[in-house]
């Protein structure tokens, strides 16, 4: 039996090898390009959509993830990070859930691509409720008045402003400051418009107004009062 197989395989082995090569070349040449598939891993952008009303995203998921794409070999190079992206829909998200699973049907890609895998399969994020609070406005006064003059009173209008932001970022004891107001050249009562500086970059003003009026009342003081102030 062994001799029989040996004769079958070794007899005219050169011709058999040549025939195999010809068959392989013909197969590779005649097979349609659409029947030859390839795969590649592609980094894509992760977009977050439909954050629920009244909530804010305080800890964002990674900006990108990787996907494995399968497509006809002649088309595989057409799929890039520019035309493939992932969409995480938070329509049903809750503040008590932080881990969200990703699936292949979250990937948007041109026709012809088959999404085989998403890496990682899970991302972490954090949502918080949005709250509002009235905060006091504190003017930032700089400079010194000329000798013999003093500040009798400083008023801010409005004296309080309403802000909103994520629950952990809004503190009722915070203060909203103004841009610096220089009083060194003032000699009498003055009104200055100053911009507002919020205590946290995640906090926003509820109204569109971003300035307040700072009224400074200047009055003359006698030398004894000046000396007492310096002391």
Structure explained in plain terms:
- The protein has 231 residues and is of the alpha+beta class.
- Helix content is 15%, strand content 45%.
- The chain folds into two domains: 35-124, RNA Polymerase Alpha Subunit, Chain A, domain 2, CATH 2.170.120; 130-230, RNA Polymerase Alpha Subunit, Chain A, domain 2, CATH 2.170.120.
- The protein contains three helices and 17 strands.
- It is elongated.
- It starts with a helix and ends with a helix.
Percent in helix: 10-25%
What is the CA–CA distance across the termini? 119 Å
Rg over alpha carbons: 36 Å
- Mean pLDDT across every amino acid position: 85
Dominant shape: elongated
Describe the structure concisely for a colleague.
This protein is an alpha+beta fold.
Helix and strand arrangement:
Elements: H1 2-10, H2 13-30, E1 37-49, E2 55-59, E3 64-72, E4 85-89, E5 99-101, E6 107-108, E7 114-119, E8 122-124, E9 126-138, E10 141-142, E11 149-157, E12 160-166, E13 175-178, E14 181-182, E15 190-197, E16 204-205, E17 211-220, H3 223-230
Parallel strand pairs: 1-4, 9-13, 10-14
Antiparallel strand pairs: 1-3, 2-9, 3-7, 4-6, 5-8, 9-12, 11-17, 12-16, 13-15, 15-17
Task: Throw out a few tags for this protein.
about 230 residues, alpha+beta, RNA Polymerase Alpha Subunit, Chain A, domain 2, eight-stranded mixed beta sheet, five-stranded mixed beta sheet, 3 helices, elongated
